[in-house]
Amino acid sequence: MLTTTKKQKIIKEHQIHETDTGSSEIQVALLTKNIAELIQHLKKHPKDHHSRRGLLKMVGKRKRFMNYLKKNNSKNYSTLVKKLGLKK
Predict the structure, then answer these.
(1) Residue 14 lies in a domain
(2) 76 in Cβ contact with 69 (< 8 Å)
(3) Residue stretches of the chain with pLDDT short of 70
């Protein structure tokens, strides 16, 4: 799981304006970091099916955010994909 300091660092990197804490870009960045940590956990514990289900739910949620961002702001979408290193 992400600690508060890690979350704050990710929010500062991806925020659009000073008080932005929950835009789509930030949500995608937080989910991406959380997914990466959960993948590392599942490599060590391959039979943890409950965490695998949580991972699949997070991936789906990130995909929905990305589709929303692509539809409404394609410029920010493309820069976010490059910044996070996603395959889109």
Answers:
(1) no
(2) yes
(3) 88
